[in-house]
């Protein structure tokens, strides 16, 4: 078994998808705290913003690969045959598409972290900046909750 | 590189990307020909939407950055609010659409 086989194994993919999503959510929450500090610590701001965007991108790639390669053949049929087919029809369908909102929003939030503090204050965008950074974390949490519902439904539908 | 203008362009492009993803997703569910086209493009409709959304975001960001003039503080603030609201409304629209689709209302 080589490295690619290990990384693309089902439980490893789920672990990468979930683990990096948690890292991204935490990074943006940390960025929110850093933005509220005075004075700004530019190195902290930029590092947390960079980690957040990168972690969301990795989570997206791993989750996307799992979804395309395994979900449709292994998980979806169990949920569709269960007592809660709506979990796929509503929750999964919504989750897979709202994930596509995240990267552009995360990049936009990260770009704010590349401003100098005096420029940020001169632009008078403190409130929308903080809301955006918080929203990028919140949307990740919502998607995580949806993932939990899907996962629980698959186990329940499978009788486990 | 004009950083406020880049933030403005990115926020507006993120807004239009959310609209693009929401519209193409709903229209493709109601129009099998479009969904088949998306499937044939990359082998899976979601993969195609993923690539299209990223290409769309980068292209629109570049166009807005190149064309935007007189980007002031007010415009940057409005663009950030639009980015947030487009994602909120896109999420609600997709959730309502798939709920209606599940129960056969559409």
Automatic annotation (TrEMBL), chain A:
It comes from the Bacteria. Keywords: Membrane, Transmembrane, Transmembrane helix. The keyword Membrane applies. The chain crosses the membrane at residues 12-33, 45-68, 98-116, 128-150. This is DUF2231 domain-containing protein. The lineage of its organism: Bacteria, Candidatus Berkelbacteria.
UniProtKB/TrEMBL annotation, chain B:
Keywords: Membrane, Transmembrane, Transmembrane helix. The chain crosses the membrane at residues 7-30, 50-68, 80-100. It comes from the Bacteria. This is Uncharacterized protein. It comes from Berkelbacteria bacterium GW2011_GWA2_46_7.
């Amino acid at each position: 078994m080589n490295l690619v086989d290990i990384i693309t194994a089902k439980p490893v993919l789920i672990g990468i998808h979930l683990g990096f999503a948690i890292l991204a959510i935490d990074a943006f929450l940390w960025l929110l705290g850093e933005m509220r500090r005075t004075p700004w610590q530019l190195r902290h701001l930029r590092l947390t913003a960079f980690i957040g965007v990168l972690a969301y991108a990795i989570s997206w790639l791993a989750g996307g690969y799992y979804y395309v390669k395994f979900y449709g053949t292994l998980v979806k049929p169990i949920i569709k045959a269960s007592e809660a087919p709506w979990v796929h029809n509503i929750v999964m369908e919504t989750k897979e598409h709202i994930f596509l909102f995240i990267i552009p929003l995360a990049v936009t939030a990260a770009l704010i972290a590349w401003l100098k503090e005096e420029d940020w204050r001169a632009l008078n965008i403190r409130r929308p900046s903080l809301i955006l950074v918080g929203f990028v974390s919140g949307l990740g949490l919502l998607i995580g909750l949806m993932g939990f519902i899907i996962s629980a439904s698959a186990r329940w539908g499978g009788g486990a | 590189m004009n950083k406020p203008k880049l933030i403005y362009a990115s926020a507006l492009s993120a807004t239009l990307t959310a609209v693009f993803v929401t519209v193409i997703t709903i229209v493709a569910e109601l129009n099998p020909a479009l969904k088949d086209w998306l499937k044939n493009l990359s082998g899976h409709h979601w993969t195609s939407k993923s690539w299209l959304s990223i290409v769309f975001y980068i292209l629109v960001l570049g166009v807005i950055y190149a064309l935007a003039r007189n980007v002031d503080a007010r415009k940057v603030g409005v663009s950030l609010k639009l980015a947030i609201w487009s994602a909120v409304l896109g999420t609600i629209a997709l959730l309502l659409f798939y709920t209606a689709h599940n129960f056969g209302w559409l």
